[in-house]
Amino acid sequence: MNKKIIVAICGASGSIYGIRLLKALLNKPVNIYLIISNAGYKVLEHETGYKGESFSSFLKERGIIFHEKTCLNIYDQDDFFAPPASGSFRHDGMVIAPCSMKTLAAIASGMADNLIHRAADVSLKEKRPLIMLPRETPLGIIHLKNMYMAAKAGATIMPPSPSFYCNPKTISDLVDTVIARVLDHLKIEHDLIREWG
Ligand SMILES: Cc1cc2nc3c(=O)[nH]c(=O)nc-3n(C[C@H](O)[C@H](O)[C@H](O)COP(=O)(O)O)c2cc1C
After folding, report:
1. How many CB atoms lie within 10 A of CB 81?
2. Among 78, 134, 138, 155, which is least packed, fewest CB within 10 Å?
């Protein structure tokens, strides 16, 4: 059975993290449930040159290879009828990459105002993996408190802070150091970086 992974892209800087994660997942027999927030689409346009075309076409134009058994389902942020909105939907993990401070705040306070918040809220109550890549700097006390609350509720807080000990040469190498850890936590095999030692 294919793993089922929910991927959310929010309007924080770092859309590249979401795209790199999708690239890694689409190359495998994984069912992906993708939700991009309205702000996420705007930042994608600004940071990646996405121009509002079909998102699958955009990924393919970037040379992303779709495994013959992968399945990409894309949902609107207001679609509360989508599978990720329900606790009866048995998925293997949800990743929010990148995660804005607004979405972090909504999740930390249990305010399920869109499908991303709702799917995260449901993941926490159903004790399914929720990995968040919150992006902001510097972090204020409210951001820190919200991260603490989300972590206490069961989320894995994984700030997208690249590592340098593998001697990255390109931006893509740097991004891979973060996405490799996400895939580790999803228990999905990858060759983005070598295991230390
Ligand atoms: C270019 C750009 C970069 C942004 N970067 C961040 C960021 O790094 N972190 C953040 O929390 N918000 C950032 N924002 C603001 C969010 O987009 C905004 O708070 C939005 O309401 C988030 O909505 P969402 O969580 O539904 O995606 C940025 C906005 C723009 C236009």
Report:
1. 9
2. 138
Domains located in the chain, CATH noted: 3-186 (3.40.50.1950)
- Which of 43, 47, 50 best tests ligand 1's pocket when mutated (most atoms within 8 Å of CB)? 43
Ligand 1 binding pocket, CB closer than 6 Å: 10-13, 37, 39-40, 43, 46, 100-103, 135-136
For residue 10, pLDDT over 90 is answered with yes
Specify the amino acid at residue 110.
Answer: G
- Burial class from Cβ neighbours inside 10 Å (0-12, 13-18, 19+) for residue 184 reads middle
Distance in angstroms (rounded) separating the CA atoms of residues 85 and 19: 22
Prediction pTM value = 0.97
Residue 1 pLDDT > 90: no
Handedness of CA 15, 20, 21, 22 (dihedral sign): positive
Query: What is the pLDDT, as a whole number, of residue 99?
Result: 98
